[in-house]
Write a structure and sequence with these properties.
- The protein is an alpha/beta fold.
- The chain folds into 2 domains: 4-265, TIM Barrel (Alpha-Beta Barrel), CATH 3.20.20.105; 273-348, no CATH class.
- Helix content is 42%, strand content 19%.
- The chain has 15 helices and 16 strands.
- The chain has helices spanning 45-50, 60-65, 69-74, 77-81, 94-99, 126-136, 154-174, 193-206, 222-232, 250-257, 268-274, 306-309, 313-321, 326-352, 355-368, and strands spanning 4-11, 14-21, 24-28, 30-32, 56-59, 88-91, 104-106, 111-114, 121-124, 140-142, 182-187, 210-213, 242-244, 263-265, 277-280, 283-286.
- The strands form 4 sheets. The chain has an 8-stranded parallel beta sheet with strand order 4-14-13-12-11-10-6-5.
- Helix 9 links the parallel strand 12 and strand 13.
- The termini are far apart.
- The mean pLDDT is 96.
Length: 372
């Protein structure tokens, strides 16, 4: 077996488990900070570890361009290069097929990108994506897919999904099986139940180590995303981890966990931290707002991060007003630690059998607002 997932407890559809890998265990539900280019922006590896994160995400497309997969391999892999001995999941480049649509040409065999850096041409096929992720030493490798944009007609979504399923089979055939390493397939099909079912059926027959749900959080809105999860997660194998790609806000995470999702990644907490937006137990704050300039109290009294335990709201406001880099560093740390706190709280609640109560309590805190 390449990697071993153990489901410890369910509470309704919410799940708590552990995924044993070559680089250590991953307790689920889990949020993975995004380290696209071999670094979580504004964070040292020690700082990321201090937030409670157990796994981070890297990106095949961006690392392929720089420093290059050969260079990463020469430096003994991504784990050693970025001082992260724990698990790393690498996105295959499928999202860039959508997000960089003006810079790529897609065909039945793969995709050719025009680099957004210097215009040079780069080719990704399922086989090449597997080889690059092998060079990176990814703990969890993602099959190459086409992330279907939204909106898409049912015919467009079908063609995209069927291409991704052909690429999934080729990815599976090219993946080098090693103890403790995993390959995930990606369910596509946009918002159409029949297409999602067909995609899941193909991937299940291929017997991947885990199953991602792709093509969501691309503009369809939370209600439609939840509706899609309602008919997608129940048809995925219960004994394998389920990963919702690119999601989301803390409220998105709660709703997806309630629908049986185990793993998440998103740039929201780090991007928000760089733009003065803080996710807290009392809602979302913009630290640039003048009201924070005289507030000599913690950003979130329930948080143990350095931004909250060692500095005031007024100081954080000052840092952003002065455009000091310490502001984004502290607020990124806070956001990531808050996300980990939410995950750990909900995991504990699932194990104790009161997920719904814990989720409602978190949401009530946001609704109550910033009261003293």
């Amino acid at each position: 077996m390449t990697a071993n997932f153990i489901l410890h407890k369910t509470d309704g559809s919410a799940r708590a488990g552990i995924f044993h890998t070559a680089h250590g265990p991953i307790e689920t539900p889990v949020f993975m900070p995004v380290g696209t280019a071999g670094t979580v922006k504004a964070m040292t590896a020690d700082a990321v570890r201090a937030t409670g994160a157990s796994i981070i995400l890297g990106n095949t497309y961006h690392l392929m361009l720089r420093p290059g997969a050969d260079r990463v391999a020469q430096l003994d892999g991504l784990h050693r290069m970025m001082d992260w001995p724990g698990p790393i999941l690498t996105d295959s480049g499928g999202f860039q097929i959508m997000s960089l649509s003006k810079l790529r040409k897609i065909d039945a065999d793969g995709v050719t990108f025009q680099s957004h850096l210097d215009g040079s041409a780069h080719r990704l096929t399922p086989e090449r994506a597997m080889a690059i992720q092998h060079q990176l030493d990814a703990t969890i490798t993602m099959a190459l897919d086409e992330c279907t944009p939204f909106p898409a007609t049912e015919d467009e979504a079908r063609a995209s999904m069927e291409l991704s399923m052909r690429w999934a089979a080729r990815s599976k055939a090219a993946f080098v099986v090693r103890a403790g390493y995993a390959l995930f397939g990606i369910v596509q099909g946009s918002i159409f139940p029949a297409l999602r079912h067909a995609s899941a059926e193909v991937l299940t027959k291929l017997n991947f180590d885990g199953y991602a749900i792709g093509g969501l959080a691309v503009g369809e809105g939370q209600a439609m995303m939840f509706d899609t999860l309602d008919f997608t997660t129940p048809i995925l194998p219960a004994d394998k981890p389920r990963y919702l790609m690119g999601v989301g806000t803390p409220d998105d995470l709660i709703g997806a966990i309630a629908r049986g999702v185990d793993m998440f990644d998103c740039v929201i907490p780090t991007r928000a931290g760089r733009t003065a937006r803080a996710y807290t137990s009392r809602g979302v704050f913009n630290l640039r707002n003048a009201r924070f300039g005289a507030e000599d109290r913690p950003l979130d009294p329930n948080c143990a991060c350095p931004a909250c335990t060692r500095h005031s709201r007024a100081y954080l406001h000052h840092l952003f007003r002065c455009e000091e880099m310490l502001g984004p560093m502290l607020l990124t740390w806070h956001n990531l630690q808050y996300y980990q706190h939410v995950m750990q709280t909900l995991r504990g609640a699932i194990l104790a059998g009161h997920f719904a109560t814990a989720a409602a309590s978190i949401q009530a805190g946001w609704a109550a607002g910033d009261t003293i």
